[in-house]
């Protein structure tokens, strides 16, 4: 972190991610929140390191007890099967930012690729963690087919739309974010 501006942007995205946990999009079968949108935008607009720091701040605040996760907060949240998706947000944000910022002025398609790469990481972390918690903590294993259906197939369509939206927003905000980051292009 270099400047007060960086700290403010990190804090802003930490707050957006927290707010996104409570903004639910009611679609049939599996409603989703806007957390993924804000974590992806953090990586795209702030870069890999700053974006990941904003997600890490969100995780720390939730784990110390602030009720900012979609179902509350506290250290015992790590025993919820869905906590893996939160871990995935951290890694996915970093990867999204790293891919997008590898070139000085990425195309829309590169940004979209970065978004989908982050999405894959979020779901991989989420599904592995979900399986592990169900198998070893809850004591009620879940089959691979059911895991894939409930934790990916039914949930991913909304996040695919959020990937596209993130890429559009990031590309449109590129001139503004260059100034905010002190000259680093998106």
Characterise the protein shown here.
This protein is mainly alpha-helical and 186 residues long. 69% of the residues lie in helices and 2% in strands. It has 7 helices and 2 strands. It has helices spanning 4-20, 35-46, 48-63, 83-100, 108-138, 144-153, 156-180, and strands spanning 24-25, 32-33. Strands 1-2 form a two-stranded antiparallel ribbon. Helix 1 packs across helix 3 and helix 4 packs antiparallel against helix 5. The mean pLDDT is 91.
* Proportion of residues in extended strands: under 5%
Q: Helix segment count?
A: 7
Structural class: mainly alpha
Taken from the alpha-carbon principal axes, the silhouette is globular
Give, in spatial order, the strands making up the sheet with the most strands.
1-2
| DSSP summary, beta strand count | 2
Task: Briefly summarize what is shown.
The relative contact order is 0.14. The protein has helices at residues 4-20, 35-46, 48-63, 83-100, 108-138, 144-153, 156-180; strands spanning 24-25, 32-33. 69% of the residues lie in helices and 2% in strands.
